[in-house]
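Subject: sequence -> structure tokens, single chain

Hey, anyone have a minute? Need the predicted structure for the following. Not urgent.
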Amino acid sequence: MEAGTIAGLLADPVRLKVVAALALDAGTIEEVAEATGLSLKDVALAARRLARAGLVHRDGHALVLHTERFGEAARAAAAQAPPVERMSDDPAEDTVLRTFLRGGRLVSIPAQHAKRRVVLEHLVHVFEPGVRYPEREVNALLAAWHPDVAALRRYLVDEGLLSRAAGVYWRSGGYVEV
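Reply:
Had a minute. Here:
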């Protein structure tokens, strides 16, 4: 069974309630109806649909949820998923970056200093060494990552990754590929 099939089955609120009741040890149509507040007819129809899909075994009024199908579907989906692109050669840094960056955007600024430093060292690569940037351009480059450009700019300067004087910024730290 595919993960998409399971998700489609559980998208229906009635079937979701039936599966939840079965997962919580309801074993008959009557027990599921009592646990969910659904009518016997609704439970029977949902159970029939779940049984046709192979997620539930139905024997008269007795119902058994095939819980192993969830794990099987998850493993199959994971096996078909494309490999995750690494953002860093260091596994610890890669974990931090994958936690805080989604789709090329910073989802939140890490509160923990060590994690924030990893993210800032990644972000500073948008600035070319030796190039001077007016504050407006720094803001535009950082806005592509996160809306709080003032905080990012301040953190980059405080960490010594950017320097500033008279409203002009330049890259002064971080790893530079040669």
